[in-house]
Amino acid sequence: MKIIQAKDYNDLSRKAANIISAQVILKPDCVLGLATGSSPEGTYKQLIEWYKKGDIDFSEVKTVNLDEYRGLPKSDPQSYDYFMHSHFFDHVNIKPENINLPDGMAADPDAECARYDGVVRSLGGVDLQLLGCGRNGHIGFNEPADCFAKGTHCVNLTESTIEANKRFFASADDVPRQALSMGIQTIMLARRILIIISGEDKAEAVKNGFFGPITPQVPASILQLHPDVVVIADEAALSLCGLR
Ligand code: GLP
Fold first, then answer.
1. Which of 153, 191, 137, 164 lies closest to 66, judged by CA?
2. Ligand 1 center from residue 161 Cα (angstroms)
3. Rounded average pLDDT per 10-residue block, the chain, 244 residues
4. Does residue 174 carry a catalytic annotation?
5. What does pTM read for this prediction?
6. Domain 22-186 top-level CATH class
7. 176 C-beta closer than 6 A to ligand 1
8. Residue 37 in contact with ligand 1 by CB distance below 6 A
9. Ligand 1 centre and the CA of 11: distance in Å?
């Protein structure tokens, strides 16, 4: 695991965008695993800027997103499908048929999860998986639990996640209670993982996730076992780790 210290959110976003950009240059038809939330917003903004300058080409890139809320249609501005289009896809030359997200409106969530795992497999797996991290150490929507979930599955969101994500909704009552999320095994099968973490409210998650024991109570801690993980965290997120 390589930990890269960034000065602040802007620095973190540029460093992350550089790694993604290098991946796309080295393998133009790569499979990118993508994430939502406020953490990757700056990274997507930077990638769009470089695309507009002609520095990156997404025409052969394929994407698979980590997760989607259950019960929100794609047209809902809070759905992750909507987020990805407005923050990234609509601004670069990615082909619509190369974009994949779980369908949060599927009538049979288990069948949808199985379909989604099939999609990831049929693409040959993920080359580079971008991750954010929840305050409780969740990755994707893999919440603290007694065991690590394997494939894509339907998750009940914890109070802490509902609380953290309510800022995007009119009230906490409007936050969906369930989501479809890639499992820990799906994430761990990615050939390379890039996790970006910013802000003091994530300092505990960074300390427990990367410097504590590996436990499903801190889902990000499993990343310590992955052979190729890059953590980019800013000074605020690293403040409890005594690294300087
Ligand atoms: C959500 C997403 C995660 C994301 C996390 C942190 O719950 N499912 O993929 O990493 O929140 O979000 P943020 O980056 O906004 O702090």
1. 153
2. 9
3. 96 98 98 97 98 98 98 95 98 98 97 97 98 95 92 93 90 94 96 98 96 97 98 96 74
4. no
5. 0.96
6. alpha beta
7. no
8. yes
9. 19
